[in-house]
Amino acid sequence: MNHLIITINFLNGTFHGRSDNGAEWPPSPMRLFQALVAVAGARWQAEFPEQVQAALDWLSSQPPPKILTPHVHAGTPYQTSVPNNAMDIVGRAWSRGSTTSKDANPSKHKAMKQIAPTYLLQDRQTGWASSDDSQWQVHYVWSDFDDSESESHLAIIQELAASLFEVGWGLDLVVGNAYVTSESPDASKCWAPVSSDGAPLRVPRPHAREALQQRHRLFLRRISKNTLVPVPPLTPLAYDTVYYRPHDEPAPHEVVALSFLKLDGSKQQSFPQTDSMIVAGMLRHAARVVAQNAGWPEDEVAQLVLGHKENKNEPHQPVGRERFAYVPLPSLERRRTSEYNHVGMIRRALLYVPAGGHSTQVNAMRRLLSGMELVSKNNVGQALISAIPSSDRMVQRYVPKEGASTWTSVTPVILPGRDDRKGKKTEKLLRKALLQAGFSEKLVSNAILDWRPIGFLPGVEHVARHNRSKVPDHLHQYPKFHVKVTWCDDQGDPLKVAGPIVIGGGRYYGLGLLVAMDQ
Q1: Is the full-model pTM beyond 0.85?
Q2: Contact 303, 323 (CB under 8 A)
Q3: Could you tell me if residue 226 is left (phi over 0), alpha (psi between -120 and 50 degrees) or otherwise beta?
Q4: Between the CA atoms of 171, 176, 182 and 186, what dihedral angle is there, to the nearest 10 degrees?
Q5: 333, 332, 305, 330: which is closest to 319 by C-alpha?
């Protein structure tokens, strides 16, 4: 497969562009397209040659590109005083014959402007790019296009890209280049379009070039008969907003947050930490009942709700990550005797699909489970289930909005294999457990791991308390540890990762649950 790649090389290693929500990173495809149109306008003025119009229109009609970037460091925002565009006030003062008043002095008309630089990084030791400025590159990669139909367009795009001089603010000087190759360039991060939960970036639509030229014509005619005609903003029809996320960062999950109440609804019901598997089993039973009553197909109930792919009387076939995970949540409580949160009893739970997706079924469970009873094996009611918002303060410790870089277990992580007596294989097995939970190889290889039999937070039960009756029979033979994970990028800097994070054997019923420690 051939790729069209446009590369912009930031000469100063900084980027100052801003989006509607603050500092923008990576630079949006629409920002690159605007820079290409500006280059064409500087050369051909208002009337572009037909082949240039056709090439730009062809580029804006392509699917959103992938964006390859180096690592970056967000600089500290600061404010500075800049001249305000208020010469009309000065002019009126001069027309009245005033030359000494405040209005008549152009230097008195200033405004505060916030600047938030983004620094492009390269070198692991220094944290800054080396003198070789080729490391300050951002690549835009289009892969799905027809070479035969686009040959004439590519020549124009290459000519325009070679003339690029700025992308972002006026001080973001660049050198551009465009080429077609069968190999993708190397970069620290690859940002790809996703359906939701990412960085919102503008991408051009097919008539973006025409809309930009029209706005430029209005700008040139903004003063008419001594009257200033404000230039309207660029029409939203000229661009789409697409979410981008690095390919090695897991997507946030759609979760259902539940609370357990006394059967009379008077207050919350509590369960011991060591009963995590028991609570998860009761919740799984309730989910099966409500799904069957709601008329869900039998195969969907078997695979998604119960985690069984096989038919009746057949050997068990694992479904993988395409199933519900039932995760009881121990509460984190403030205690006067400790500066850390004390891990207490189970009063809440999460339900989600580790593989992502299935949002329709997940949201349906939020409605169906609310008001149901948790019932024990001997058919005795234990608690009422009540749906709560995922913004609940306690739930946010397990599913923080901004993610977290350091996580630690509140229930034991069961290793996916036998360890040796000296524990030399423990780290390898823990990384295997992270891979099985859906994290990328790159993310797992950079993670810093620590483990021990006792918890890293006060109140966490020793792994020995989770005895044979507290874990599944087929997992009892494998080692158990409490784990602390610190996520890092290639530079060794902390990297925030979204929750929930549940790893190891028994991760579909609450064992191996990690909580964010960044707070």
Answers
A1: no
A2: yes
A3: left
A4: -30
A5: 305
pLDDT in tens, 14-64: 999 888 877 889 999 999 999 999 999 999 988 899 999 999 999 999 999
pLDDT band at 71 (very low <50, low <70, confident <90, very high): confident
DSSP state string for 313-372: TS------SSS-EEEEEEEEE--TT-SSPEEEEEEEEEEE-TT---HHHHHHHHHHHTTP
Residue 502: is its pLDDT beyond 70? yes
Q: Which residues, 6 or more positions from 378, have their beta carbon under 8 angstroms from its beta carbon?
A: none
Q: Which region, left, alpha or beta, applies to residue 162 given φ > 0 means left and ψ of -120 to 50 means alpha?
A: alpha
Distances (CA, A) of 43 to 31, 175, 215, 216, 457: 19, 17, 18, 14, 64
What is the rounded CA–CA span in Å between residue 411 and residue 115? 45
Residue 390 to residue 387: CA distance in whole angstroms:
9
Instruction: Note whether 498 and 196 are within 8 A (CB).
Output: no
Q: H helices then E strands: how many in the chain?
A: 11, 27
Q: Where are the beta strands (DSSP E) in 159-238?
A: 174-181, 189-194, 199-204, 223-224, 227-228
Whether the CB-CB separation of 208 and 30 falls below 8 Å is answered with yes
* pLDDT at position 519 over 60: no
Q: In terms of DSSP H, where are the helices of 62-176?
A: 87-95, 147-161
The DSSP string of 273-323 is GGGHHHHHHHHHHHHHHHHHHTT--HHHIIIIIS---SPTTS------SSS
Which residues pair with residue 501 across a beta bridge?
A: 514
Amino acid at 449: L
- Are the CB atoms for 435 and 441 separated by under 8 Å? yes
Give CA–CA dist 322/306, Å, rounded.
11
Residues 506/476, Cβ–Cβ less than 8 Å = no
Please say whether the beta carbons of 199 and 193 come within 8 A.
no
Of 270, 306, 271, 267, nearest to 286 (Cα)? 306
Closest to 260 (Cα-Cα) out of 361, 332, 329, 353: 329
Q: How far is the CA of 417 from the CAs of 11, 395, 429, 432, in angstroms? A: 50, 31, 7, 9
| Distance from C-alpha of 252 to C-alpha of 498, rounded to nearest angstrom | 6
How far does the chain reach from its first CA to its final CA, in angstroms?
Answer: 46
Q: Sorting pLDDT into bands at 50, 70 and 90, what band is 123?
A: very low
The residues spanned by each domain of the chain are 3-71+122-246, 78-115, 255-516
pLDDT digits (tens, 9 = 90+) for 216-231: 988 888 887 778 788 8
Q: Helix axis angle, 147-161 relative to 50-60, nearest 10°?
A: 100
Top-confidence residue, 92 or 315: 92
